[in-house]
Specification:
Elements lengths: L1 E5 L3 H12 L3 E6 L15 E4 L5 H6 L7 E4 L4 H14 L4 E6 L5 H6 L3 E4 H13 L1 H5 L8
Parallel strand pairs: 1-2, 1-4, 2-3, 4-5, 5-6
Length: 144
């Protein structure tokens, strides 16, 4: 599978390294070249400095043949814009978007995007560790 990952922060670098180790063709894109220092030393993919909302950059890196696109920068707006471009303009079949603001998750779903809210996941896990009864009783944060 050819996977394009926008954002080489801690999450993007971890996903890119794992997918590369798993034998996938991985291209990771970031606006800052020093971000690639987060990748594992044995990362076998391609790194590109560029902006994932720039359609010329996306064409240059081969988005037309991408099987999957992951937007995981620190900006919800950039992530949603890049994901919509990947899905609706370039017809990438699997598009996953990272979001921080859980209130936006429903909006992303309405746009047909698979959104993962690290805020919701972290909060749910903290609640589960602090008081497992809240999870069993259905009082924990709802995983939208």
């Amino acid at each position: 599978m050819f996977v394009i990952i926008m954002g080489c922060g801690r999450v993007g670098a971890r996903v890119a390294s794992a997918m590369s180790r798993g034998g996938h063709e991985v291209l990771i894109l970031d606006v800052n070249a020093s971000a690639f220092d987060r990748l594992d030393a044995d990362f076998g993919g391609t790194t590109v400095v560029g902006n994932g909302i720039d359609m010329d950059v996306l064409r240059r890196i081969g988005i037309e043949r991408a099987d999957a696109f992951l937007a995981c920068t620190q900006g919800d707006n950039r992530n949603i814009m890049a994901s919509q471009i990947a899905q609706h303009i370039f017809n990438v079949s699997k598009v996953v978007t990272r979001i921080y603001d859980p209130l936006r998750q429903d909006t992303f779903k309405a746009l047909g995007l698979e959104a993962i809210s690290s805020t919701v996941i972290a909060a749910d896990r903290f609640i589960e560790v602090l008081d497992p009864d809240l999870v069993q009783e259905g009082l924990a944060v709802d995983r939208a």
